[in-house]
Write a structure and sequence with these properties.
It is a single chain. This protein is of the alpha+beta class and 158 residues long. It has one domain: START domain (Alpha-D-Glucose-1,6-Bisphosphate, Chain A, domain 4, 2-Layer Sandwich). It is 31% helix and 44% strand. It has 3 helices and 7 strands, in the order H-E-H-E-E-E-E-E-E-H. The chain has a 7-stranded antiparallel beta sheet with strand order 1-7-6-5-4-3-2. A hairpin with a 4-residue loop joins strand 3 and strand 4. Helix 2 packs across helix 3. The termini are far apart.
Amino acid sequence: MKKIVLAATVLLTCSATSALALDAKATKETTASPEKAWAAVGDFCGIASWHPAIIKCVPSTADGHQVRTLSLKGGGTIEEELVSRDDKDMHYTYKILKGPLPVDDYESVISVTPKGDGSMVSWSGTFKAKGASDDDATKTVAGIYEAGVDGIVAKAEN
């Protein structure tokens, strides 16, 4: 009986571990003012102007929410919904509705904050791995974020 309880405990622990939320974040300082960096982020479909992996963004609405469909350079699309946006505090939150990324329960925030004479651009998110290891899912998302903040900063400084 003790062996059965121990085996069940191990199985439950392993199952719970894989269900925990993962996170990724990328930040980059820029000499651009917060207002200029936030303008570089642009509207919800502005991502197509600064992220190197996005070739097109098509805006739409679903159930009263802003949605964007992103066409990826390597093929495929990602559909995302805007959860909230605050232009005064310079951040927006969105979630992935569907797409090829190895994640589930994904929610992310892009923000700009004052930093010295310039600003800090941040992109962070939480998610669960889907069809990939936790490490691979985290590396994939972190790579997307790093390319994105680099693109925002480059646009803001030009």
